Amino acid sequence: MSDRIAEKYFRQENLPHIWCPGCGHGVLMRDVAKAIDNLGLCKDEVCIVSGIGCSSRAAGYMDFNTMHTTHGRAIAFATGIKLAKPEMTVIVVTGDGDAAAIGGNHLIHAARRNIDLTVVVFNNNIYGMTGGQYSPTTPTGEFGTTAPYGNIDQCFDLPKLSEAAGATYTARGTAFHTAKTIKLIEDGIKNKGFSLIECVSVCPTYYGRKNKKGGAVDLMKWQRDCAIDVKAAEKLSAEEMKGKFVIGELSRCEKPELTAEYQKIIDRVRG
Amino acid sequence: MANKKRVLMQGNEACVEGAIAAGMRFYAGYPITPSTEIAEMSALKLPKVGGKFIQMEDEISGMAAVIGASAVGVKAMTATSGPGFSLKQENIGYAAIAELPCVIVDVQRSGPSTGLPTSPSQADVMQARWGTHGDHPIIAISPSSVEETYRLAIRCFNLAEKYMTPVIFLMDEIVGHMREGIELPDLSEIEVIDRRRPDPDDDDYKPYFVKEGEYVPVLSPFGEGKRYNITGLVHGESGFPSTKAEVAGPQCERLMKKIECNKDDIIEYEEKFLDDADIAIVCYGGTTRSVMRAITKAREKGVKVGMFRPITIWPFADEAVEKLAKKVKKIIVVEHNYGQLVYEVERAAKGACGVEHMGCVNGKVIMPDDVLKKIEEVRI
Known about the structure:
The complex is a heterodimer of chains A (271) and B (380).
Chain A: H1 2-9, H2 25-39, E1 46-50, H3 58-61, E2 65-68, H4 74-84, E3 89-95, H5 96-102, H6 104-113, E4 118-123, H7 158-165, E5 169-174, H8 178-190, E6 195-200, H9 204-210, H10 216-226, E7 227-229, H11 230-234, E8 245-252, H12 258-270
Chain B: E1 5-10, H1 11-22, E2 26-29, H2 36-45, E3 52-55, H3 59-71, E4 76-80, H4 82-98, E5 102-110, E6 116-120, H5 125-130, E7 139-141, H6 146-163, E8 166-172, H7 173-177, E9 179-184, E10 229-231, H8 245-260, H9 263-266, E11 269-272, E12 279-282, H10 287-300, E13 305-310, E14 312-314, H11 318-327, E15 330-334, H12 341-349, E16 354-358, H13 368-379
C-alpha cells in the first residue's frame, strides 16, 4: 500500500534514506505524507520544516517545500514562514531531543501563541544521531550512553506540556498504529491553531539495544501491547495502566490563532 | 518633482525607516538595549505597510523566524546588541550557507557578557566577521550618522538580496541613540534591489545551480511552485545534503568567492583631507564624529591629518588601506574597543607605515580632545 504514497510524495532521487533497519521513522514519515494526501493539499502549498537529529532528515526526502534547519529551532523557523505566508500549510517534523530539550522554549511559546503549525514529534526516547544519549523523554531508570547507571531524570509528557502551554490540539500515535496516527496528523493539520502530535517511534539500534528490549519487531510488539486508546484508558484503573501509555486525541479547544489575529491588526491600522 | 522631507530622527528610528523603504516587511526579535527602539518602531510601522512583526521568545528564535520569512521571499530584519548578537550566531551561519538574505542589526554596546549596559562600544567587529563557526562569507556595514543609517539600511537589504547572504548592520550606541535632523529622500529616488527569480517554465530548476563565471544562486521563494530542500548541511545543486568532496569543495569555495569576487561592488569607504596628509586616522561608526572634530582642530594647528573611514567593514578594504599606508607616514586606528579593526589595518598596510591604535574600554565616549592628544603624541 505504501508504493503510491512513496512515489507521489518522496524524492526518489534522494532515497534510500539514512535511517537504520527497523527504525520507526520511515513509517512515520509515510504517515505524514498520507495525512497530507488524505487532505488533498497541493504540494506547492505545503512546507515541511525540521531541525537536527534522525527525525529531521525526513524533510529532505519529502517532495514539498522543505527546510532542514538548526538543532532545536525548527518551530522558530516555521513561525517565520507561517507568519510571513499564512496561506501555507506548515508542518514541523522534529524529534524528542530537538523539540523537548534544545528546542523546548520554542515549543511552549509557539503553543502559547496558538500559531497554526502542526508539530509532529518522532519520539524515539533517545538521541539516535549522536549514538544513544538519554533525552527528555527517556523513561526514568532506563539507560543511555550518558546514563550508564540509569536515567535519574523525570521525562516530559509532550502532549500534556503542549496543552498546558496553550496548544489547541494534542494527540499521541505510534509507529505501529498507522491508520490511527495518520488520522491524528490529519486532524492536527486541520486544526487552525497550534497542534502537537507525539508519534512514538522505535530505535532498535540504540534505545532497544541499550535497554535490552530486543530488536525492531519486539519494539513494535511492545507498542502494540502497551499503547491503550484514550477511550479504553478511561475505563482502566491506575494499576491497570501501569507500564502502558495512552494514544489518540488527547486535547482540543478553540482559541484565537496568531496569524489571523495579526491580519486583523493590519486591516485595522490600514483602515 | 522629488518630495524630500526634513525630519528630526534617532539613529535606530532611521534604521527602521530605511529598512521599510528598502522593502522590509518582516521583523522578528527580542528586546535588548540599545537596539530596542528598532523593535518598537518596527512593531508600530510594519502593519501599516502590510508587513509583520513578532516579538519572539529569545534572540535565537528571532534570528530563526527572520530566516524563515526570507525563505518565502519576504525581506526580513532583526536587531540586537552584544549578548543577543552572540546568541544569533549559529543561525547567521545557517543563513550564510543556505544563502537566504536577511539583515541583522547589531547596535553595539560594551561587553564582554552583560558588560557595561549600555555604554558605547565597537567591540563586535570581529564577532561580525567570525562570530558563527566555520568558513563563511559575511558583509558588515557601519553607519556614522543618522542620515547615513537611513541610506545604509537600504544598502544592507540591497546587498543581502543581490548576493543572497546575511548582512550585518554594525551600528553602535552612539549612532543608534543620536538624534539629528536629516533629509529623507523621495521614495521614487531610492534604488531597491530584489532577489532574482527563476524562470517559472524551467522544469529542471536547481536552486543552488550557478552559471559558469557567476557566484550567486537563484533561490525561488517557497510557495511559488519550485519545490526544493534548504539545509544547513553542505549540499549540492538540488539543495540535498552531500558529503562528497567533489560537491563540498566547489560549493564551499563558491560561497566565499561570492563576496570575495564582488568586493569592488560591496566595499564603500570615505576619505577626507588625505591629499596632503602625513597622518591618517582610520575610524568608523559613531567614533568618526570625535575624529572629525579632532582633525579640524589639528589642522588649525598646522598638523596635516586626514581620515579614512571604512563604511563597509567586511569585506575589509585591504587595497585602499594598502595604498593609504604607502602615502602617509603614520596611521592611527581609533575605535571603541581594545583593538580589533587595527589588526586588519596592520595586515593591509604590510609594514608600509607605522600603525597605532587608540581605543577606549571604560564605557565613555572617545572625545575630540582625546584624539587630538593622540595625534600630537604620534607627531612627536
